[in-house]
Automatic annotation (TrEMBL):
<dbReference type="Pfam" id="PF02879">
    <property type="entry name" value="PGM_PMM_II"/>
</dbReference>
<dbReference type="Pfam" id="PF00408">
    <property type="entry name" value="PGM_PMM_IV"/>
</dbReference>
<feature type="domain" description="Alpha-D-phosphohexomutase alpha/beta/alpha">
    <location>
        <begin position="14"/>
        <end position="137"/>
    </location>
</feature>
<keyword id="KW-0413">Isomerase</keyword>
<comment type="similarity">
    <text>Belongs to the phosphohexose mutase family.</text>
</comment>
<dbReference type="InterPro" id="IPR036900">
    <property type="entry name" value="A-D-PHexomutase_C_sf"/>
</dbReference>
<keyword id="KW-0479">Metal-binding</keyword>
<dbReference type="Pfam" id="PF02878">
    <property type="entry name" value="PGM_PMM_I"/>
</dbReference>
<keyword id="KW-0460">Magnesium</keyword>
<dbReference type="GO" id="GO:0016868">
    <property type="term" value="F:intramolecular phosphotransferase activity"/>
</dbReference>
<dbReference type="Pfam" id="PF02880">
    <property type="entry name" value="PGM_PMM_III"/>
</dbReference>
<dbReference type="InterPro" id="IPR005841">
    <property type="entry name" value="Alpha-D-phosphohexomutase_SF"/>
</dbReference>
<dbReference type="InterPro" id="IPR005843">
    <property type="entry name" value="A-D-PHexomutase_C"/>
</dbReference>
<dbReference type="InterPro" id="IPR005844">
    <property type="entry name" value="A-D-PHexomutase_a/b/a-I"/>
</dbReference>
<feature type="domain" description="Alpha-D-phosphohexomutase alpha/beta/alpha">
    <location>
        <begin position="267"/>
        <end position="375"/>
    </location>
</feature>
<dbReference type="GO" id="GO:0005975">
    <property type="term" value="P:carbohydrate metabolic process"/>
</dbReference>
<protein>
    <submittedName>
        <fullName>Phosphomannomutase/phosphoglucomutase</fullName>
    </submittedName>
</protein>
């Protein structure tokens, strides 16, 4: 049996969707080895015999991946290493090989962090209620030893297969020539972009920060923060690129900047891809989370599709993708999910759709995307609060007379007249309230934000 740990320690590291913490303080080789052993027990009970493992470019990732693999093998399961990979490349490996997977990355978090994203065979999610709580319990009580033979290990390079698979899903042969500025943020986009886009004769890639460096010497690999888009915006303007793409650290999310250097809302990208997927399969289901722009479900309905609203978070989206047979799903955070990609998310596949849509028409990104941006939005605004429930109740009381409806699918969503709405959600891991507001004009958004924050931060 492995070592026991306090529930407080384990709960601080195993989150709702993944495992994540500070290397050396919360995450080390012994800990992830035990996570690997517990994960292997869970997967063995479900009939798996192999686990595929990938890792990002962080200094700690190879050692942690090796420790996890040792824990898996100690439980009698074989291991296939794919080495350096983006998270969606790991999902591809899970789908292609038909086995569970583990990706070592802390995504957009700073260099001192690392973590593990886990999935079942065919990239099916492992979340809080679908396995992570079981792993938590075993890390507290100790993981039982396995008395059978130790598993074997091998290595396989799937990068070229991954790139070819994505290109086969999106028709790019007849697009017009495009110049694309790409900021990899010293993350795994520097590994995958050359293989996926570099072979396209119609595309010229202008690279920025493609050197793999887990210390992130230029800026954090978190394009959701506008400060981390500044260099790409400058490059787009100076190079005359048709479009700019920014990937996060593990390259599973892709953000778009138009030809003027202006950021494009991920909700607008969701709407664009939804339109393309519904053109191939009329009447299909499209998933959107509850803080995605209302423009998305409106467009899906206009096109004869069926919009399905979910909580925020990839495990919830993936569960709904599987349950509904949805062709596509999108989140405000620039996670994009595809049925053709085992229901998993791929920022690179979303980028290919954007390039195809742009290359099919002789007009700039700003014009192409204008049809999908019907509303003004605040973006996510975080407030540190001592009592999230109390502050939320105070906001609801203030808006009681104006609310058209209130629902509690994820935090509280308040629908207001004239299609304005806001959502307040408490963080799962920090003393934060997250606010998102949408309305018909920026002035109305700003007024609502000011009013709500005056209550939240009182």
């Amino acid at each position: 049996m492995t070592a026991t740990r306090s529930a407080e320690f384990v709960n601080a590291v195993i989150k709702a969707y993944d495992v994540r913490g500070v290397v050396g303080e919360q995450i080390d080789a012994r800990f992830v080895g035990d996570v690997g052993a517990s994960f292997a027990r869970l997967m063995r009970a479900e009939g798996a015999s192999r686990v595929v493992i990938g890792h990002d470019m962080r200094d700690s990732s190879p050692e942690l991946a090796a420790a996890f693999a040792a824990g898996v093998r100690d439980q009698g399961l074989d291991v296939t290493h794919i080495g350096l990979a983006s998270t969606d490349q790991l999902y591809f490996a899970s789908g292609k090989l038909g086995c569970p997977g583990a990706m070592f990355t802390a995504s957009h978090n700073p260099a001192r962090y690392n973590g593990i994203k886990l999935c079942r065979a065919n990239a099916l999610p492992v979340g809080q209620d679908t396995g992570l709580n079981t792993i938590k319990d075993e890390l507290v009580s100790g993981v039982p030893a396995y008395d059978g033979a130790r598993g074997a290990a091998d290595e396989v390079d799937l990068l070229a297969d991954y790139a070819r698979f994505l290109r086969e899903l999106v028709e790019l042969d007849d697009i017009r020539p495009l110049t694309i500025a790409v900021d990899a943020g010293n993350g795994m986009g520097g590994h995958t972009v050359p293989e996926v886009l570099g072979v396209l004769s119609q595309v010229e890639v202008v690279p920025l920060y493609f050197e793999l460096d887990g210390t992130f010497p230029n800026h954090e690999a978190n394009p959701l923060d506008p400060a981390n888009l500044v260099d790409l915006q400058k490059l787009v303007r100076e190079s005359g690129a048709d479009v700019g793409l920014a990937f996060d650290g593990d390259a599973d999310r892709c953000f778009v900047v138009d030809e003027r250097g202006e950021p494009v809302s991920p909700s607008a990208i969701t709407a664009l891809v939804a339109e393309r997927e519904l053109a191939k399969e009329p009447g299909a289901v499209v998933i959107h989370n509850l803080i995605t722009s209302r423009a998305v479900p409106e467009l899906v309905e206009e096109l004869g599709g069926t919009p399905v609203r979910t909580r925020v978070g990839h495990s919830f989206i993936k569960q709904e993708m599987a349950a509904t047979g949805a062709v596509f799903g999108g989140e405000h955070s620039a996670h994009y999910y595809f049925r053709d990609f085992w229901g998993a998310d791929s920022g690179m596949l979303a980028a290919l759709h954007v390039l195809a849509a742009l290359g099919e028409k002789d007009r700039p990104v700003s014009e192409l995307m204008s049809a999908y941006q019907k509303y003004a939005a605040s973006g996510e605004i975080n407030s540190t609060v001592a009592d999230a429930a109390q502050r939320t109740a105070a906001v609801l009381e203030a808006f009681e007379s104006r609310a058209v409806s209130v629902d509690r699918l994820d935090g509280v969503t308040v629908q207001l007249p004239d299609n304005a709405w806001f959502n307040l959600r408490a963080s799962n891991t920090e003393p934060l309230l997250r606010l998102n507001v949408e309305a018909r004009s920026q002035e109305e958004v700003d007024a609502l934000v000011t009013e709500i924050l005056s209550i939240v931060r009182a």
